[in-house]
């Protein structure tokens, strides 16, 4: 299998705190790769480095064969690397449909003067954006809410909205930051199926940062475990589950 | 440049800067409890000056009595502003509150013009106008008053915030209003208090500066602007930064007036401010993430 | 639902057509030229308000410096046409182009700043310009103003009557409104609203936030500068007072009064703020006091502006009709 993303020796410091230390991380093309670890392990920081929101102090990133170590976030998004946020960053005052239409922004574009003068090209593009956004909404199953204001949606629906917005960007690599946080068991189960369905339908790759172990173990192809910014284990779900170091990191080591 | 004129400009700048600093501190205190830039802050400064002039020259009150009376009067105005214009709209977006403070400033300015006319008014210096020679620089005695009173006021505020319950409660409010209300601090009262204190500080700054720069009903606009600039220069929300920003701005302006041109002194001060902002986007002593709006 | 997008755009176009008709009919109800002058000023102010509605209302980037762009364009065109004797049309174009270039230069570093810091930077820039207008006496005429500016002319044809100027202003304003609606109903408008709510998420979705902020900043500066050159050649006299800090504040007031995100609202806000002092003039000294008081009351009782108030009234009316 090909690697869609390689992170080599990535280090990040916040003040005196080492958030990530020489982390080596690969994501397989077409796979669901999960990053797990206790709170404060550096999972979200890793996702921020990958999406370009945090600049690493050392190390480099190869994405689809190109070095993207210093590319700004919107450029990475343009390359098909799209993320969701742990604390939901939906555009709360816009409609659900508009939110998803923003997802098409980087992919479907016309020069500014076309928009300004509303040329036929701009009108046609707007129609296309609209249709594709609706498709994405249908895919996650909330197309009936297209006209509602995003902030009026229930929390679980907002999660789905973020997912639809990301899908509208037609990502090659989808970065999910704790997509199950705040969801109940049924919703989480539905989410797991949805993520797999997304992967299969679009043949894309997923990096999943998640706390919910049932979800992670159920859908991941590979797992990396972080603790205090260090990689302590990696492998298939079965391998990781048995790793004594992982058990120790989660439950604490018994001193004897 | 010789050292005595440098000293001269420095003292002038510090004197002017003290008022800017006090105005900036007023901005900071209200900003910290409400998250709003109070555009009427300059009007508090103007009110202090105008009231003291009115008390001394029209009612014949002696200066030592007029100063606290004018300060109290402005403080009352501050309380009224909070009660009548700010409290009824709590919970509105901050841009609305900002527009309301703009309305308040226009209103106060208009009233001042109605009562006291459009003339420029003077106030006698507190202790004569014989310059004192310090290392070759001629310093007006009023400059010492300004500096001394500013230092006393700043110390008083420092003690208020670190020693009294009310002061600590206000600090708590500025860190996290929600948490503060959970532990039983009346955020409402703190907002009222912050308007009163800001008005008081602004007024004192206005009063002590009046003998040097004179005053008129529209003096508050420029003073307010300078105060806001000082806040930003020092890093919005940081009281120490506000005071320091004021002093820096005052000195910059006075040096600019002395060595370059008095017509362009304000322009110079703002150019320096812009350059600083482009280099350091959150002010000299501000926190890194400056997003509050 | 499928065509909801076009419906919204069409509704705005209907509004624009109605507005244009109203503007064209208005002069027939005017008893004298004084009212026409005020209407022209309203139109010129509305141009700023429309641009700032996009910049402040939609993109959330506060500017307190647009009076500076207004003045810069006015003075540039005045200087070129009067002192250097260039053709009026050419001077006006030059005034707008220069201002747009300056706004690009100012916007580039300023728009990295956020919130109050951006407000301060634009404010500082505006003040520097207004000091220049006042102090460079040989060029601008200083505080007493720049006199003898040639009247507005279009393609060599001088507009000698106020009514001709008024029509020109109305057409330009409506063009700006049209452009603004186009922007708002396009991916640009969406990107602006998105970066207003969350710069982080907008970036993650591929929006080049720096570029879009700059675009809308320059666009609004262009609107202000066009207003500026029209102003200079309409009044034939300009003075620094018109382009000071207080005018920048007034512009923001217009937008907020109009309801922030509504283009029609901003225009109504501009008309309101321009006409109100004229009405209050009857009260002589009290006018400033009344102006302040009305501003406060408006914000207290119409927190979402005139547009919001109108919407509420309209929906209440519709409900009443239904029952």
Shape of chain B, please?
A: globular
Determine the number of helices of chain B (DSSP H or I, runs of at least 4 residues).
11
Order of helices and strands of chain B: HHHHEEHHHHHHH
Please state the structural category of chain B: mainly alpha
User: Beta-strand percentage of chain B?
Assistant: under 5%
What features would you describe in this structure?
The complex is a heterotrimer of chains A (256), B (293) and C (323). By secondary structure, chain A is of the alpha/beta class. Chain A folds into two domains: 166 residues, P-loop containing nucleotide triphosphate hydrolases (Rossmann fold, 3-Layer(aba) Sandwich); 77 residues, no CATH class. Chain A contains ten helices and ten strands. The longest helix of chain A has 21 residues. Chain A starts with a strand and ends in a 5-residue tail after the last helix. The mean pLDDT of chain A is 92. Chain B is mainly α and 293 residues long. Chain B has one domain: ABC transporter involved in vitamin B12 uptake, BtuC (Orthogonal Bundle). Chain B contains eleven helices and two strands, in the order H-H-H-H-E-E-H-H-H-H-H-H-H. Chain C has 323 residues and is mainly alpha-helical. Chain C has one domain: ABC transporter involved in vitamin B12 uptake, BtuC (Orthogonal Bundle), CATH 1.10.3470. Chain C is 76% helix and 1% strand. Chain C is built from 14 helices and two strands. A two-stranded antiparallel sheet of chain C has the order 1-2. The chains are: A alpha/beta (256), B mainly alpha (293), C mainly alpha (323).
